[in-house]
Amino acid sequence: MNITILGATGWIGGEITTQALLRNHQVTAIARNTEKLTAENVTLKNFDLQSDDDIAPLLAGADVVIASIGGRAAGNHELVARTAKRLLAALSGSNTRLLWVGGAGSLEVSAGVTLVSSPDFPAEYKDEALAQGEALEVFRATNTATQWTFVSPAAVIYPGASEGAYRIGGDEFFTNEQGESKISVTDYAIAMLDEAQHAAHINQRISVAY
């Protein structure tokens, strides 16, 4: 497959890039500064999402675009939902699917109650979580022919190797038998690539955790 990864220099985007290469996909990496990327056999393209330049030409020919956009590095959380709108528009009329690296904050801990609204949700991550929630609403509200999947990680995503298995959920926040919500970045990336290859959850939000 031809896979284009937007935000490939971030730690999640970087791991997705690594896993895509391990599966012998043709990978194009897009970032504001791709000089940080040292992986071989990757087509590098520089693009600043804060610019008004047309991103559509950079996405042409991709079977799947995977977008890992946080906004924190740019100091602009409004960038997240705006990029979701921008990518849906750019891919309109193509056969390219869009996979989005989402957040856990919009997962529901009970009916209609999101994780980010919990009193003990870490304040330092709240703006980013709310921004990802706004992006999810963009996907759900936009009338588009573009096929998308919003992939929320567990509450804790950490550097680490694969544990060999993961679980897929929907909008509901879920935990393991110890009451923990976690996933390694490696297994999150593996789940993302599995979705890219199998297209099992079109126009849905899914969550990934142990």
TrEMBL record:
Q: Which InterPro entries match?
A: NAD(P)-bd_dom, NAD(P)-bd_dom_sf, Polyketide_Oxido-like
Enumerate the spans annotated as NAD(P)-binding domain: 7-195
Molecular functions per Gene Ontology: oxidoreductase activity, acting on the CH-NH group of donors, NAD or NADP as acceptor
Pfam families given in the database record: NAD_binding_10
Taxonomy, superkingdom: Bacteria
Question: Which PANTHER family is this protein grouped with?
Answer: FLAVIN REDUCTASE (NADPH) (PTHR43355)
In Swiss-Prot or TrEMBL terms, this protein is called NAD(P)-dependent oxidoreductase
